[in-house]
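Reviewers asked in the last cycle whether our approach scales beyond single polypeptides. To address this, we selected a multi-component target totalling 824 residues and predicted its structure end to end. The input consisted of the following lines:
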Amino acid sequence: MDHVTQILLQLFAILLAAKLGNEVFRRLGQPTVVGEILGGVVAGPAVLGVYEINAETTLFAEIGVVLLLFQVGLETRLHDLLRVGATALTVGILGVVLPFGAGFLAAQLVGGDLALAIFLAAAMTATSVGITSNVLRDLGALRTNSGRIILGAAVIDDVLAIMILSVASGVAAGSFDPVNIISLLLVAVLFIGVVVIGGTRILRRRRSILTDPEFAETPFLPGMIVMLGLAVLASFIGLAAIIGAFLAGMVVGESSERHALEAEVAPVAAFFTPFFFGFIGAQVDIAGLANVDALVLLAAITALAVASKFVGAFVGALRQGRATATLVGWGMVPRGEVGIVVAGLGLSAGAIDSEIYSVVVGMAIITTLIVPPLLPAMVRRAERGRLEEPDDERVAEPEAAAEMHERAADED
Amino acid sequence: MDHVTQILLQLFAILLAAKLGNEVFRRLGQPTVVGEILGGVVAGPAVLGVYEINAETTLFAEIGVVLLLFQVGLETRLHDLLRVGATALTVGILGVVLPFGAGFLAAQLVGGDLALAIFLAAAMTATSVGITSNVLRDLGALRTNSGRIILGAAVIDDVLAIMILSVASGVAAGSFDPVNIISLLLVAVLFIGVVVIGGTRILRRRRSILTDPEFAETPFLPGMIVMLGLAVLASFIGLAAIIGAFLAGMVVGESSERHALEAEVAPVAAFFTPFFFGFIGAQVDIAGLANVDALVLLAAITALAVASKFVGAFVGALRQGRATATLVGWGMVPRGEVGIVVAGLGLSAGAIDSEIYSVVVGMAIITTLIVPPLLPAMVRRAERGRLEEPDDERVAEPEAAAEMHERAADED
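The resulting structure, written as structure tokens, was:
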């Protein structure tokens, strides 16, 4: 069997396993994303071993989450995000500071060196917005207050993550350059500002720009080109590729043909996202966790990761009411692929050993699996709460009006 | 820049380059597929070097052509293919025998050994059905007599290619096992028969089978799973993955929701196929052809490749009239990715040297570029011819009736 065939077999296996997992969880009335991740556990090295983590499957997983965030961006308008900007900022900052502090202290307690402490802390701060936003999308709750806060906080989270990872890599390499870190931060903020404000303006001035080329019968391929381009640019300056894709979605979502675009992106995203969920599941390392010490450590780290992120994000969102703050707090908990990537960086930098690596990956997957089942009830409570709180209704009304205005503009 | 980002950059570059090439050729009124291939030349190693041939870009190209043939399969019904079966068989056989003989003799003339002769001959016999069927699709001519003959001949062509490649590899490795070759052939014929007849029967008995799973709100993801599965199986037994994908398309095209399936496959195929066309262009090796000897050899080999394939396929299709035979003859000429793959196998087996490799790749690309501009006029002539020839009208009528019947069944 030649190499391409082997990879096609692995893609076939993970797609089938993820959708079978989806099928089982759907019939059980449970979140399908958990089923897809568990499908990945079964197809992956931990059980059947048909699917492997390699360059090609990693690429498919990455494109899966890039498309997911692009799709989420398409459904997100900039002014909605800015309206919850202050809350998103405190959620993002507190949701990074608390887990980082907790991870750092925990590493000191178990007697690790500085490099270990910083990498463990960095893995604890990671947030995988892909998982939560996928569930919120399924629930139709992306355009709620809580959904917007989570998305905004995820962007801020990622900007802070650049700094933390840069510090961590510097410490592991024995160097530390604050000027470099500050300049990374400035470039990231500048990139986001220019893309969002500049891109949105361009599209608002010329809403048909995506279908101006002759090859573009629909805005789909130009949209995909913008998505890939901004994902690469974001990644190039140190941000996550998915942040670039999310911004791309927000920008091209200003197009006059957004609904046509959404309809064409949907099957492409539906094809790719199972590779992302399956990939997360396939990271499970049962052998690496097959002793009591590792399991105890896993339980402790996971508890700490959940508690610190929840408290940080909850406190950050408290001004929006308890129900919203609870949803936002839980919504930020999944570490998903981001935690796994950070742990992998720590492993290859020699800062953490393979046991800690397995523990951190286990923590990332557990935090990812426990959240989706909790979200539907929380969304209902948060949205009911909003209707009962008079303070929020003032916000809700212009929101609805803005959306109607936007829809009317879309249909012109 | 990490590895995934590098690959995303290459995918971005080739997608952009292919679509810019498409744009230019569309404005010039020329076939867009040629523009996409030339976009690949510019982005690839020959000119800008932003795009590279590597495991990931090869995978994307392969999935591109797999999706293209799946889409062609969706638009092809088995009974239509069987109706032109006898013509397709003679086109397939003569279209293999003549180029093989010509390539073999040419290699003897330039003084190559047996292994060189067989690999050169094998590269001459290859047909890239992807290019022609893409142009025929754009012209809406897949469901014409000529379109069906070309598709049927491509399947037969590929079955014969298994034998030839098996002989070639055996000779290069110094072994030759006729029993092995016959058994490969039998397995291939059995696979095609079982998939087409069995698969079609299953879907005809239960036309909703693709949406029976709960996860499948539409037949799209189940269809993609079948496509990947049959592509892998075909490849596993020695056929091209695209033949499996084509059969998968024919089978799932029996679904009661074929039109919904086509609508969802379309954007996925539109996203992936530029990677295939761009990949072909990126294979151009200008440095390897930068001397007079190589260019003379290239011209001679290309002329021989065009003439032998055209004459073989033309004679094979002559019973359908001259206009149809001319279209079929030209339609079989592009060697595309198949010729390149065979040349690559010969290079890695040590049977051909890097200069001959560059020449064969050049021949594959030239044959691929010259055909699309010729096809539109030939399609018009062949279809007009069919209406004027009374013999053919007998065929045309039940065909149209069958299609109406089928459409009516689809809409139930």
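Confidence is low (pLDDT under 50) at residues 388-412 of chain B. We regard this as preliminary and will revisit it once experimental data from Aim 1 are available.
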